[in-house]
Every structure is written in C-alpha cells, then in structure tokens.
Design a protein that fits this description.
Elements: H1 2-15, H2 17-36, E1 47-50, H3 57-66, E2 69-72, H4 75-83, E3 89-92, H5 95-102, E4 107-113, H6 119-135, E5 147-153, H7 167-196, H8 199-205, H9 210-235, H10 243-265, H11 271-293, H12 308-320, H13 324-353
Parallel strand pairs: 1-2, 1-3, 4-5
Antiparallel strand pairs: 3-4
Helix pairs in contact: 1-9, 2-7, 7-9, 7-10, 7-11, 7-12, 9-10, 10-11, 10-12, 10-13, 11-12, 12-13
Length: about 350
Amino acid sequence: MIRALIEKDLKLYFRNPFFALITLLSLVLVIALYFLLPAHAEDSLSTALVLPADTSAEMSAFLSEAFESELLDSQDALMKAVEAGDYSAGMVLTDAIIDDLANGRPVDVPVYTTPGMTPELKQALTSLYTAGLNNVNYVSAEEQLHINDHVIVLGPDLLDINEALALRDRMLPMLIMMMFAIELMGLANLISEEVTRGTVKALLVTPLRVRQFFSAKMLMGVGLAFLEVMLLAAATGKLFVSPAIVVSALLIGSLLMTGVAFFIAAFATDFMSVMAWSVLFLLLLMLPGFNVMFPTMASAWIKVIPSYYLVEPLHLALNYGAGWAQVGSNLLILFASGLAFLLLGSALLRRRFQ
C-alpha cells in the first residue's frame, strides 16, 4: 500500500505543470548558476589598525601609511570588523608596543585575522606588518627589530587548503536550500490538496491506515528532495569532498523539509495559502545561508533556526573538509528538529481530516 501511494503521489506531483516545470528548471538553473559564479577568490589584503587615544594626528597618519591600514577607534571595533569580514586582518598598537619601537626593543604584536586565510596571505600579512614595524623604528633605519607576530584567528580556523574560498563555494549551501525550497512547496501543496478535496478520507475508508498514509508521504518527500540535492552536489563535484557527512546532512535536511511541508499543509487550504506559508518559512530557513554568504549578518540568534544546523555542517564539510567531530552535534540537532516538525505536522494533519 505504501509503495502504491508513493507511486500515485509521484505521478500527481509531476502532473502538476507548475511544480514539474519549476523542479526541473530550478535544478538546471541552480547548477548553471554555480558554474557561472567566480571559481576563485580574490587574494587581497585589507587591514585595520588601532592606536592609543593620545597619538597625534601626524603620527596617526604616518602609522596608517606605514601599515597600509585603515584606522579604527578601539580594539573591540577592530575585532568585530575583522570577524565580520570587513577587513582581512587587524593589529592593535598599545603604548607599550610604541615605547618598545621608540627604544629599539623587540616587540610582540598580536595580529587578528579572518578564518580561512590561506598560508600565502598569512605570509604576506606577516611581511606587511614586519616591514611596517621596522619602518617606524626610531633608533636606526638600518637596525631591524625582532618582531614576533601572534596570528589570532577570529572564528573557526578550519581551512587547511591552499586556496581561498570562492564565491560559488560560499554560495553552495544557499543553492542547496533553494532546491529544498521547491520540494517543500510541492509536497505541502500535494498534501493540502488531498486534505481539502477529501481524498484522504476516501483513502482511509479502504484498509489503508493513517500511519501508512503518513509513511508514504514522508518517504516520497524525503526521497524526492534527497535525490535532487544529491544531483546538485554531484554535478558541482562537491559530493566527493566529504561524502559520508554530505550524504548524511542532505538526508537529514530532507527530513526537516518534509516535516516543515507537513506543518504547512496542516494550515494551508489552497494553492495560494500554501505559497504564503511557504514563503514565510523559506525566508526564515534561508537566513543561515545568507549568514554564510555575508558574514556581517552573523548573530547568535540565527542558531534558533533549524536550517542553521543544515547549512553549517554543509558549509564546513563542503568547503573546509570538516570531520564528524566538527559537525556531529549539528546533525543531531538537525535530526531532532526534523523529527519534531514531522511529528507535530502529522498530529495537526490528523486532527484536520479526522
């Protein structure tokens, strides 16, 4: 019975001209968009500098030029700007450091960088600051100071490859979420139509049980969503980066989207209401994807959105080669969230047609 229901649902899904066309077209367009986006990151340095409050305007201008850095007001502002990605790196010169420079003593300088900086850029950064510090050595223009640069990474420093993260790779979790969105709307509309038209009640008059009905819908939703995002991951060549983690994340993510589709179908009464509810949920579910693309949106509250625990493992595994230790807890939370939505949506649907 479950197999027969799945076959029926697949036929109904692809008989709908809107969802049949948008599903196939979206898959092609998303894959094309990925390959049209820049394949390489631009290796460039933008740096910031914080000076003591009593530094003269002339000295501030001199130091800013020596380090090729923009001046910021405080260490806290610098750390937030670097962590947000506004600058590649930043350095804070205290009174003690400047005093050591003025007297030709060795200095110990902490340098703050963004996560994922390549070894080449770190070396360039060290050379830049070393040259700058020696340029402000007042004791002798020929005497080179002993400088110890402490590179402090603000955020997870998981990058162990020699290439910076390209825009298309940063955007990939968002593209995967876009494909999930199509399936979410399609499944929610399919279930809503069956409930509204009374098809469910007619089915339940037969020996079919409610549990079998929900099982068929769940398997169809999870299977279809999983198949499409797997095709996307395979077409981009990212499926084989961390295959076990990527497959697990996509499968559990399919469960979450199916659960959300159940929840939407419990309230939607027609196609337009399905679209309205879907847009509301999709705006929330896609926020973590924007968070990866634009780090300046980073905020602690984003972690209350269940899709964060899908986007984050995908981002870390696909782009940084993270292992189970880094993503395991996120996947557990994602599974719990998907199961909760599935159970809640099923309970609400049951009340609606019984």
